[in-house]
Amino acid sequence: MSLRVWLLLVVVVPVTLGTNPGVKVRLTQKGLEYGRQLGISSIQQKLRTIKVPDISGKQKVSPIGKVEYSLSNMNIVDVGLPKSAVTPVAGTGIKLSIGDAFIHLHGNWRVKYLRVIKDSGSFDLSVNALAISTSIAIHSDETGRPTVSSVSCEAHVGSVSVKFHGGASWLYNLFTNFIDKALRNTLEKQICPLVADAVSDMNPHLKTLNVIAKVDKYTEIEYSMVTSPTVSESSIDLSLKGEFYSIGKHQEAPFSPVAFFLPPQANNMLYFGISAYTPNTAAFAYNSAGALSLYITDDMIPQSSPIRLNTKTFGTFIPQIAKRYPGLMMKLLLQTIKTPNISFQPNNVTIQASATVTAYAIQPNTTLTPLFVLNLNTSVSGKMFVSEMRLAGAVTLNEMDLTLRTSYIGDFQVRSLDNILQLVLKVVVIPKLNVKLSQGYPLPAIGKMKLVNTQVQVLKDYMLVGTDVQFTG
Ligand SMILES: *[C@@H]1O[C@H](CO)[C@@H](O)[C@H](O)[C@H]1NC(C)=O
Ligand SMILES: *[C@@H]1O[C@H](CO)[C@@H](O)[C@H](O)[C@H]1NC(C)=O
Ligand SMILES: *[C@@H]1O[C@H](CO)[C@@H](O)[C@H](O)[C@H]1NC(C)=O
Ligand SMILES: *[C@@H]1O[C@H](CO)[C@@H](O)[C@H](O)[C@H]1NC(C)=O
Fold this sequence. Notes:
Keywords: Antibiotic, Antimicrobial, Disulfide bond, Glycoprotein, Immunity, Innate immunity, Secreted, Signal
CATH topology of the largest domain: Bactericidal permeability-increasing protein, domain 2
CATH architecture of the largest domain: Super Roll
Protein name: Bactericidal permeability-increasing protein
Organism: Cynoglossus semilaevis
Radius of gyration: 35 Å
Structural class: alpha+beta
Strand content: over 45%
Helix content: 25-40%
Number of helices: 8
Largest sheet: 7 strands, antiparallel
Main location: secreted
Subcellular location: Secreted
Shape: rod-shaped
CATH superfamily of the largest domain: Bactericidal permeability-increasing protein, domain 2
CATH class of the largest domain: Alpha Beta
Bound molecules: 2-acetamido-2-deoxy-beta-D-glucopyranose
């Protein structure tokens, strides 16, 4: 291998291994449009805080001579931003353009001339055809959350018109020039910093991204960004880690996310792509936390079932149980022996699990006497849905396969236990799993987000959640 190739591998391999996200979030043009509406009202409020300083001076006006003038108490009475557009700029960020904007002000004028003559009145001022254009960059902060900043901005005042109340008309001409120039300067200077403020005001909201979202007492999920956001002509994509950890034991899953690509759908504001990696890390975390085992006792089986967890029922299939342990209740211990595997195929989520089932007879003094251990391979199929800000699911049994691992009671036909174990899975284990799955796990969220028009599609190797968003405060 040449040195160059070797260097290339050294440089490329760690980067590509580390950066595949488990979860992708795509903000479409429709989502940006919603963001624009929120952003514009924030900019509008900021522009209302513009302070226009008093303007005063002396000016020679023939034939009167020196005129002292002052314009004061200029207050903004209205700001209108009727036209704006937001477009993603590939590789850079977002461009926000505001056109035809206007600012209406009201103020007082005062003059003094020929030593003793004083006059005063008020005026209404209208700044029109105001254009603002700003570029907004998106980055990842040190906590893996997105941050935005205004990186360039231009503001241009198209025209200024004034309507004076009171006074003589020759005065108007005197002021109009001064007002035009002074206002252009003061407005053009103040607008861009205020726009930059409005843009940075988004950061406290972005900081609410749940980079560590607690799921339950066993696990949490990490949603920090693994790379900077990528901007294309039509969308902004965030690449999030999407890895479950068992709480208190920050252990990396022994497998890595595989690259996946979101389809070019744009009907919704937001798309979440959740790769099979994410639920597989959940399975790994629950398994490492020891949360994937279950004791099954007779009281968990519905009263109406003729099959009971006792040596009488089991004795009808394995006579030596009834003979050696007559009249005892039984207990089963279900334990996974490796991390269950979750796979996504179009319209189908499948979970495959390998477990052992240990059957015990419960002695009158409560001692558990082991009878046999079975290997249980099972596969369940799931449907996924979104409830509130959580992705939830429900599964049904596909197939189940039993083999004998150890027997303490001599040989028996494992097949004969198929019906009992199927019943146990269907009426005890799967309903319990479904209660857990129906609680779901949190999706990445910012602030008080509500999802509407949400659809879930299961595709090959990932799941796509398309949704619109409403911020409720
Ligand atoms: C899960 O099973 C699929 C095939 O069914 C396999 O490609 C994948 O590697 C398995 N994943 C894990 C984490 O074992
Ligand atoms: C899902 O796929 C599994 C195997 O990949 C199959 O056994 C099962 O029947 C499928 N389920 C549905 C509902 O299509
Ligand atoms: C409980 O009863 C079983 C069966 O009679 C016996 O083998 C075992 O030693 C007893 N255990 C205790 C702790 O008494
Ligand atoms: C159960 O699955 C394990 C691995 O997951 C496999 O080695 C074994 O052969 C399977 N047993 C049956 C009975 O299918």
